[in-house]
Amino acid sequence: MERLERAWVIYLVIAWRMLYLMTLGRDCPHLPCEVAFTAEEGRAAWRMTTRLPPPQAPPTLGEMMRLVAGFGDFLGRKGDGHPGPKALWEGLLKLMASVEALQTVHEVHGFTSTCG
């Protein structure tokens, strides 16, 4: 029973973050993405989707949510509305793996960040 309670606590924290991100992305899309994502996550997401260096000003939260959800197979067509929890969750998993990989390459090989 104790292990099940621990698992529920972890799932609740994950669910809270997903709801927090979805609510912020829908209600406050013009905020800078740094209110919910680290600068490294923002640079990595921008670099992975556009293949260009990140802009000087961070993307907005609405743009970042669509970038991350795109990693989770959100198509972002005109009538698709806002990203849902499944696309956002899958996108966050891929984004976190990419950020870890970039950090590892930087630490092991001493390269400057390829994110910008």
Question: Would you write up a description of this structure?
Answer:
The chain is mainly α and 116 residues long. It has a single domain (2-109), classed as Transferase Inhibitor Protein From Tn5, Chain (Transferase Inhibitor Protein From Tn5, Chain A, domain2, Orthogonal Bundle). The chain has helices at residues 2-27, 39-50, 61-71, 85-109. α2 (39-50) packs across α4 (85-109) and α3 packs across α4 (85-109). The model has no long low-confidence stretch (mean pLDDT 87). It holds the Pfam family Dimer_Tnp_Tn5.
Mass-distribution shape: globular
Largest sheet: none
By secondary-structure content and strand pairing, the structural class works out as mainly alpha
**What is the CATH class name?**
Mainly Alpha
Radius of gyration using CA atoms only:
15 Å
Q: How are helices and strands ordered from N to C?
A: HHHH
CATH-defined fold name: Transferase Inhibitor Protein From Tn5, Chain A, domain2
Please state the average pLDDT score: 87
Q: Name the CATH superfamily assignment.
A: Transferase Inhibitor Protein From Tn5, Chain
Low-confidence blocks of residues: none
**Can you tell me the CATH architecture?**
Orthogonal Bundle
Could you estimate the helical fraction of the residues in percent?
55-70%
